[in-house]
Amino acid sequence: MKRISLWISAGLIIAATAGAVAAADMASVIHARQAHYKEIGKATKGLSEALNSPSPQLPAIQAYARQIDQLAPQIPSWFPAGSGPEAGVKTGAKPDIWAKSAEFKAAAAAFTTEAHRLDQVAAAGDLNAVRAEFPALGKACKTCHESFRQKD
């Protein structure tokens, strides 16, 4: 009887430890996701400020556009199952990201398309074309935020 008790206790300890590790892993996933979004936000803000500057610096604009383009395709991978509000970490992610996965992936793909288009336009070096393309990126951001992000 003592052996069974020991095995049950050991199993419970292992299960509890695994649960704690999984929760810690999800916390790190959420924190990494938030850091990546802050990078996108800083690059977008930098791009906006550079475009509205009296003397826009093309190399800076190109660097911001490239950074957004490099991060955008990664977005769906930042939302593994279990990394929503149920993880117990403050997150702006709505449960709809997982409940409406196809819609979320489509919105992320639209953002990725716009980010890539903006990067290509910036690489070509025409500031007026970049200014004309930039609002499409903002619209793609807004679409996703409205559907899949909690209001602050």
Task: Give your account of this protein's structure.
The protein is mostly helical and 152 residues long. It has one domain: Four Helix Bundle (Hemerythrin (Met), subunit A) (Up-down Bundle), CATH 1.20.120. The protein contains five helices and no strands. The radius of gyration is 21 Å and the shape is elongated. Residues 9-21 have low confidence and may be disordered.
CATH topology: Four Helix Bundle (Hemerythrin (Met), subunit A)
What is the overall number of helices?
5
Count of all domains:
1
Mean pLDDT over the residues? 87
Distance between the termini: 55 Å
Write out the CATH superfamily name. Cytochrome c/b562
Query: What class, by secondary structure content?
Result: mainly alpha
Low-confidence stretches at least 5 residues in length (pLDDT < 50)? 9-21
CATH architect. name: Up-down Bundle
Secondary structure: helix percent: over 70%
Which CATH C-level class is it?
Mainly Alpha
Order of helices and strands: HHHHH
Task: Please summarize the sheet with the most strands.
Answer: none
Strand element count: 0
Radius of gyration from the alpha-carbon trace, in angstroms: 21 Å
Approximately how much beta-strand content do the residues carry? under 5%
How would you describe the shape?
Answer: elongated
Question: What's the short version?
Answer:
The protein is an all-alpha fold.
